[in-house]
Amino acid sequence: MNQEVKNEGFLDTLALSELPPDSQKSVFVRTTRVLLCNTDAGLFAIEDRCTHAFQPLAGGDIEDGIISCPKHGACFDLASGKPTNNVATRPVKIFKVRVRNERIEVDPTPVPS
Ligand code: FES
């Protein structure tokens, strides 16, 4: 049995201790850069690529489960990837994320929007 089948398709990223509360970290999941966010609203995995002008979302302010792109201020719901203001019109891809054995794992297949 290969590692992916054993993990139901989820791929290992970081130790949970590397992503303390109120922090974010950009990682590669296969070839996609994914921003892991540990927030008051939970743990989220969102593509680290804004749909406005394709800049990284990393470093954006997060409040009430909404991330604000540091470049021009597009806001996205971390749970759905949908834009919450009118700077961007298209959603950002989101991914299922879970913690197993103190490791953060991400499903590399985006959640259908
Ligand atoms: S690139 Fe994100 S708001 Fe423009």
What is the topology?
Blueprint: H1 3-6, E1 11-15, E2 23-29, E3 32-39, E4 42-47, E5 62-63, E6 66-68, E7 75-77, E8 94-95, E9 97-100, E10 103-106
Antiparallel strand pairs: 1-10, 2-3, 3-4, 4-8, 5-6, 6-7, 9-10
Bound molecules: FE2/S2 (inorganic) cluster.
FE2/S2 (inorganic) cluster (FES) is lined by residues 50, 52-53, 55, 69, 71-74, 87.
Determine the CATH topology.
Rieske Iron-sulfur Protein
Q: What order do the strands of the largest sheet run in, or round the barrel if closed?
A: 2-3-4-8
Q: Report how far apart the termini are.
A: 31 Å
Biggest sheet, in brief?
Answer: 4 strands, antiparallel
Q: Given the helix and strand composition, which structural class is it?
A: mainly beta
**Average predicted confidence as pLDDT:** 94
Query: Would you list the SSEs in sequence order as H and E?
Result: HEEEEEEEEEE
Q: Please tell me how large the radius of gyration is.
A: 14 Å
Bound molecules: FE2/S2 (inorganic) cluster
CATH superfamily: Rieske [2Fe-2S] iron-sulphur domain
